[in-house]
Design a protein that fits this description.
binds zinc ion; 8 strands; binds adenine; TIM Barrel; alpha/beta; deaminase activity
């Protein structure tokens, strides 16, 4: 009991958090009311987000995001999500942010959103000691042309705060290689690369993200477990997985935490890390993730210390920032 308490309170590194997906339903309802937009259809009677499966989740996600209109709205969300992360002991976090939702891919508009978000993040760092960095996120089911606009926004704002390009969205649409132009543009701008793969598609999707896009981390990647040659490729190339166990179980990728492959991947030697993905959508928090893994896989404090070391080593920020957080 005492050890579980200590585990829940460990300082945590989170590498995979969708900015809009971290918006609590009450926050979105409040904005909808202010702006007189009716999105009541996306909520259950108890106030939680209502969706049937992952693909419906993506629709509800976009409907919820539609009430986030101004840079100020995004700044308010930034403060709210960092308060929640700090309550969970998160000391360093990387968040996926889409220019598609922040000015529609226009670079000038994107800079304004980014400026407002950074101000909120800097204030949270001063007040709560939590550090945030941004990963620009092309959305796969919006297609390669919109991805290029997102990547251009990323390249134009690459630096100490925008640290990477990371594709999200429906991995059943198109191929990883359709987005190679965007990933090349980001790499040339000095950005680090990650892509969602192996959440819904099998091991070959994970291989394609590595071989066709040159990513050094994978969002999820857990279905690599279906082909040990792909697992060994991840080990050999030192690719880190951004694993979101609670998200996977809630969406039915795996039936339970006990059956989740995170422990098998870790034992074999893959660099695994732990994140929440979209916490209010999947009814999870970083404390819940840690407690669930401690119970399901008998992970002790030492294992979590290793997980956080792996996460910090794979973080996209500069070395000085990394050394300051743990
Ligand atoms: N966007 C938000 N959450 C996502 C997930 N788990 N997979 C793909 N795209 C997402
Ligand atoms: Zn994700």
């Amino acid at each position: 009991e005492d050890e579980l308490h200590r585990i829940a309170n460990l300082p945590k590194i989170e590498l995979h958090l969708h900015f809009e997906g971290a918006a609590p339903p009450a926050f979105i309802r409040g904005l909808a009311k202010e702006k007189k937009v009716d999105i009541s259809g996306i909520f259950n009677e108890d106030g939680s987000y209502a969706y049937r499966d992952f693909w419906h989740f993506l629709e509800v996600y976009e409907a919820a995001t539609s009430v986030l209109k101004t840079p100020e709205d995004f700044a308010r969300l930034c403060t709210a999500l960092l308060e929640e992360s700090a309550r969970n002991g998160v000391v360093y976090c990387e968040t996926f942010l889409s220019p598609d939702f922040c000015g529609g891919g226009d670079v000038t508009a994107w800079r304004e959103y980014l400026h407002a978000i950074r101000e909120a993040a800097d204030a949270a760092e001063r007040d709560m000691g939590i550090t945030l960095r941004g990963i620009v996120t092309p959305i796969r089911h919006f297609g390669p042309e919109k991805a290029k606009r997102a990547a251009r926004c990323a390249a134009e704002t690459a630096g100490d705060w925008i640290v990477g390009l990371g594709m999200g969205g429906d991995e059943k649409q198109g191929r990883q290689r359709d987005f190679a132009y965007s990933f090349d543009m980001a790499r040339e701008a000095g950005l680090r690369l990650t892509s969602h793969a192996g959440e819904w598609q099998g091991p070959s999707e994970v291989r394609e993200a590595v071989e066709d896009l040159g990513v050094e981390r994978i969002g999820h990647g857990v279905r690599a477990i279906g082909d040990l040659a792909v697992v060994d490729m991840l080990i050999e190339r030192e690719i880190t997985l951004e694993v979101c166990p609670g998200s996977n179980v809630f969406l039915g990728v795996f039936p339970s935490l006990k059956e989740h492959p995170i422990e098998r991947l870790r034992e074999r030697g893959v660099g695994v890390t732990v994140s929440t993905d979209d916490p209010p959508f999947f009814h999870t928090t970083m404390k819940d993730e840690y407690l669930g893994l401690a119970k399901a896989h008998r992970w002790d404090e030492e294992v979590f210390a290793m997980i956080n070391r792996t996460a910090l080593d794979a973080a996209f920020c500069d070395a000085a920032t990394r050394e300051a957080v743990l």
